[in-house]
Structures are given as C-alpha cells and as structure tokens.
Design goal:
The structure holds 2 protein chains of 2 kinds. Chain A is an alpha/beta fold. Chain A is built from 9 helices and 10 strands. A two-stranded antiparallel ribbon of chain B has the order 1-2. Classes of the chains: A alpha/beta, B mainly alpha. Chains A and B meet through helix 2 and helix 3 of A and helix 6 and helix 7 of B.
C-alpha cells in the first residue's frame, strides 16, 4: 500500500506540497483532482524519485520512495506514466516498451512474456511496433506511455494526466485501458483535470489545492460534492 | 579518371577519420547537451598513447591501438566524473570553459619536456608499401584506415541499435527525463558515452598517426573540424556526423585537388558557411 504522510516539497522558497497525506490500498484506483499548479505533478515526481522531498514520508509497502533515485523506485514496483508522456520519439514503439523494462534487463524471458501481455492489452500497438513512437497519434502515444510504464511490471502505477490533449473518444479508450490494467491487480494513482472521466473509474479520490489535500472521499461522495461539482465537473 | 579515383580513396580515408572523431563528439553532445571542447585533446592523447605504446612499451601496432583506446576511454570517463558531472547544474558556459581548460591542460602537459616535448613524433607505418589497383595507388595504411573506420562505425551502429545498453544512450539523448523515469541510471550512461567518445577519438588518432605527424597541437585542428562537422550534420545526430564527416573530407580533398592544396581548409569551411546559411539547424536535425 502507498502511504504518504505529511509530505512536503520545496522549490527554493516556494512550498509546492505542504503536508500531504494520502493512501492507495492494493487494487484501488485513486484519483487526484486538482487544477494546474496545484502540485499534482510535484507529488508524482516525488513518488517516482525524480524530486526530493523536504519533509514527511512516502512509502510503498514500507519501502521509502523519497530516495531521489528513480531506478530504485521503479525496481521496487512503482512506475510512472508522466504528463506529456516523455517517450523516446525516434525509437520504435517496441524499443520504447523494452526500455520500460530496463530494470528487468537480466530477465529476458520475463520481459518477453510481459511484452506479449501488453500487446494483448493494447492490440492497436501491435501493427505499430516498428514505427517511431513520435509518429503515432496522440492517443496511441498515450497508450505507449502507459504500456512502457507497465513493462516495469509495477504494483503501483502513477498516471499523470493521461487524458491531456486527447479527443473525448480517445480519452474513453485510455480510461478503459486503465481499468483493464487495474483488473489485473495493479493499483493506480491517477492525476486528472478531466474529473468526470477519472471519477467514473476511481474507487476513491482526493482534491489537491495549493499543495494541500482539501477534500477526500469515496467516488460517490466526490461526485455529489458541491465543491467538486462546481470546480472540477463544471456542473 | 585514375586521378579522380585516387582522390576518392584519399577522401574516404580522411572522411573515416573525421567520422570516428565526430561521432564521439556528437554522442556526448546528444546525451550530456554539452559541447565537449576537450574532445580534440582526447584525440591528441590517443595519438601519443599509441606512440608511447609502440616506442616505449615496444608492443605491436594493434595492441598499441587497443591500449590507446582503453586509456583514453578511461580518461574520458574520469573527465565526465571530475569536470562535467559536478558542473551539470551550472550555467552552460561553465562546462564549456572547463572543457577548453582541459584541452589546454592536456596540450601543455604533453608539450612539457619531461613528458613528450613540443617536437613532433613519427610513427612508422605498420603495413608499409603501396597497393596498385590498375594505376590507382593506395598506401596500405590508407586502406587500413578506410576498412577499420567502416568496421568501427558498423560496430557502433550495432551497439546503438541492437543492444539495450546502446538503446539507453539513444533514449537519453531523445528524452533525458523519460530515461530517468524508466529507471535508466543517467550518470552511468553519461560516463559510458564519454568513454565511447574517447575510445573512438583514440582509434581515429592511432589510425591516422602513421601518415600524419603526432604533435601536441594536432587536437586543436581536429577540434575545429569535428565541431564544424557536427554543426553541419546537426548537433547530436549520429547519421549527421557521418555524412558531415565525409562531406567535409570530400570537399577538402577535391577542392584541394582542383583548386589548390593550400586552400583545402578554406574550401571546407566555406562549404560549412554555405550549408549553414541555407540550413541553419544542420542537415539532420529534427525541426523542433
């Protein structure tokens, strides 16, 4: 289980996160709602080891994630699919995926099995396996980004704004894919501005504002909460 | 016709040497985003290590080449740790100035009378003699340069395209943050890339040393040329470095032949100016 306690992150004098508390239980999809600049990406970067924390703790099944070493976090079952995807545009789709399994580089047969599973999960990628990742459509690139994170065989998937810049129909496909991943037993922490779609597949949710958690609750409670409805659902 | 073929072989040999040196520079730029102005110094050091291995250790030419490649690779990796890594978050100018400092340091060190001294050194050709192909004469050394440089380029391409470690170098040059995110240790990739660039420069130096004199200043001239080449090809581009290298070599050799040998360098750089005026991003840079 992911346990974030009193986590703070500073950029110089600016407090990007102030004492965030959050949990993700095994098998859950937890959505993190928040506007631009609320601190969602900072939280994700900290959980994946790209950003150092200045206070508090974040652990996955008891292992500290605030190491500042992404390779450690990936190897311990926490993989991130970042905002903006950060693919390797000139490398083929398959090479992007194989690099996603970099932490399992000594386990070639395991990676081969995982690759086969990924192609079952994202059949649209099979015919694109040889194409440069940068040549794919936005939705397909998002699939590659999720698939690349899954190649690390994570127990916890950190998904940062997967719907950004995608057409509604494609967003739906992406969220269906997330749900399939979750059905396979991967816990998901999902940051979204597209609150409606995200809440649709989530078990629980948190609202992050100005670097602090201001609201949390199960899916139904958030869906019907007036503040959430006016701020994030636009109704 | 034979004379054109003759020049063609000369250009191929020169282009092979340029390509090996330029490839290392472009790889380092791609991965570290730092123009390594000390690269010419590594090339020069490769030549001296070859000379020292032959002259002082008394080993054969091939072992000398391998010693030079390994020695310079080690030094280049050390350079990354001691100079470029500590300056990774500093303003861009700092690592550039540091690199120029390294270049001058290496030159001064080699020129010191108690090391090798300022005078030029000569390396005997390992395969003396010439090959006569229907009127086209070719020294064995030039043929060796052409064959060896193509082999090394093929090997590098195999490494980059077919191995996972090679893929980490390409991945890091295309998206550094993405590379960190999948768990690639970017420090290790940086050191490895520097080591490869050093080894390539040393191999090029060892190959060309028998037909050129070995001098402390040889790195500066090469520096200027390979920077021109990777700017021409597109900074960080591997195919760009190879195409740029052969383009410069052909321009120099044929320009020198048809116009005047004294102007060979001038013609090469004129070509660079013209290409950059038409295509400022270089030949192979993606339009981003």
């Amino acid at each position: 289980m992911l346990e974030v306690r009193d986590l703070s992150v500073k950029y110089g004098h600016f407090m990007a996160l102030r004492g965030v508390n959050l949990t993700v239980q095994p098998g859950e999809i937890v959505v993190l709602l928040g506007a631009n600049g609320a601190g969602k990406s900072t939280l994700f970067r900290t959980l994946s080891g790209l950003q150092r924390s200045s206070g508090g703790s974040a652990t996955w099944n008891g292992t500290a994630l605030t190491t500042g070493r992404p390779e450690f976090n990936v190897a311990h079952g926490v993989a991130q699919c970042p905002e903006g995807r950060l693919l390797f545009p000139d490398l083929s789709v398959e090479k992007n995926l194989r690099l996603g399994a970099f932490v399992h580089r000594r386990d070639a047969s395991g990676t081969a099995r995982e690759l086969e599973r990924i192609y079952e999960l994202f059949p649209a990628l099979v015919e694109k396996r040889g194409a440069p990742a940068g040549s794919l459509s936005g939705g397909q690139q998002q699939m590659v980004a999720i698939a690349r994170a899954l190649m690390a065989r994570p127990q916890l998937l950190l998904l940062d704004e997967p719907s950004l810049g995608l057409a509604p129909l494609v967003v739906e496909q992406v969220f269906q894919a997330v749900q399939r991943v979750n059905n396979d037993g991967v816990s998901v922490l999902l940051a979204e501005q597209n609150a409606f779609a995200a809440l649709g597949i989530a078990h629980r949710g948190y609202v992050l504002e100005g670097g602090q958690i201001t609201l949390d609750g199960p899916q139904q409670a958030l869906m019907t909460d007036d503040r959430v409805r006016s701020a994030y659902l636009g109704v | 016709m034979t004379i054109v073929l003759q020049q063609l072989f000369n250009a191929l040999a020169l282009g092979g040497v340029y390509a090996l040196v330029a490839l290392g520079l472009t790889l380092v730029y791609g991965v570290m985003r730092v123009p390594n102005f000390a690269h010419g110094g590594l090339y020069m050091l490769g030549a001296y290590l070859t000379y020292a291995s032959l002259d002082r250790l008394g080993v054969g030419y091939v072992p000398a080449l391998i010693i030079a490649a390994l020695g310079v690779a080690l030094l280049a990796a050390l350079l990354e740790r001691l100079i470029f890594y500590p300056l990774r978050d500093a303003p861009h100018v700092h690592p550039m100035i540091a690199a120029i400092g390294v270049l001058f340091f290496l030159e001064a060190l080699i020129s010191h009378p108690s090391v090798f001294g300022p005078d030029f050194k000569q390396i005997a050709e390992p395969l003396p003699g010439i090959l006569n192909l229907g009127g086209v004469t070719l020294t064995w050394q030039r043929l060796l340069i052409i064959v060896a440089s193509l082999l090394v380029m093929w090997g590098l391409n195999f490494f980059l395209k077919r191995t996972l470690t090679g893929a980490t170098i390409e991945a890091m040059s295309q998206n550094r943050e993405g590379a960190r995110m999948v768990g690639i240790n970017t420090n290790r990739v940086g050191m490895l890339t520097f080591a490869i660039s050093g080894a390539l420069a040393a191999v090029a130096a060892a190959l060309v040393a028998p037909i050129n004199a070995v001098t402390p200043a040889m790195g500066e001239v090469m520096n200027l040329k390979v920077f021109a080449i990777i700017i021409l090809g597109g900074m960080g581009s591997v195919p760009g470095a190879i195409v740029g290298a052969f383009l410069l070599a052909f321009t120099e050799v044929f320009g020198g032949f048809y116009i005047s040998l004294d102007f060979a360098d001038l013609i090469g750089f004129t070509m660079l100016v013209i290409v950059l005026a038409i295509r400022p991003q270089g030949l192979f840079q993606r339009g981003t």
